[in-house]
Amino acid sequence: MADLTLYTLTGPSRGAIARWMLEEVGEPYEVRALDRDADEHHQRAYLEINPMGKVPAIRHGETVVAEAAAICLYLAETFPQAGLNVPVGDPRRGAFLKWLFFGPSCIEPAVLDVAFPRKETAPRGAVGYGDFETVMKVVEDGLKPGPFILGDQFTAADIIIGSQLRWGMMFGVVPKREDFLSYTSRLEARPALQRQMQLDGILKKPA
Predict the structure, then answer these.
(1) Host H or E run for residue 192
(2) For 173-190, what is the mean pLDDT?
């Protein structure tokens, strides 16, 4: 029995982010795929894992971690041999943490507000990300040095930023700018991401 367990959903979900990270880490893990149609992620057994009723979550021994960015950071630090972390003391640590949490804190809410508009536009200062165009410009500028968000090293932050951009462009919400397309193309060449897409395709329920 593997020491790592991933909790995800049948069908597309944020669980794909954690699975990509696990594939990059290379440690054996088990998958507990919750039935979306049966609302299994809102039933008591899973709510004991994550009271929010959201995926992904992982169990590592006795440790449970929820929230995609937290999972990526936990795995990067727990398995440093994978080279996905920027350790404390490295001057790039600040940028690593910034981008790791920029995805769920800024990109995702900005994209969702465009995909599902509010009846009334919230004041810029009332939303954590400010405005959509600023978020896109910050990411675009951050990618320009390349090839990855921190330069030559691929890290857990790329899994978070890359997942947000790929999802947003797939659904036509994030603009298909040249820097976004070339960045995500480099990510999609990674064997771990290719495995994640294949494995999560297996979890899709037949129509």
Answers:
(1) helix 191-203
(2) 97
Predicted TM-score (pTM) of the model is 0.93
CA 79, distance to chain mean position in Å, is 18
d(CA 110, CA 131): 7
Contact 76, 167 (CB under 8 A): no
Give the start-to-end residue ranges of the domains of the chain.
4-83+193-203, 93-190
Fold of 4-83+193-203: Glutaredoxin (3.40.30)
Residue 206 scores a pLDDT above 50: no
Number of Cβ atoms within 10 Å of the Cβ of 7: 24
Neighbours of 114 (CB within 10 A): 13
> Residue 80 corresponds to which tokens in the numbers above?
């440093």
Per-residue pLDDT tens digits for 90-131: 999 999 999 999 999 999 999 999 999 888 777 777 678 889
The token duo for 144 is: 């320009």
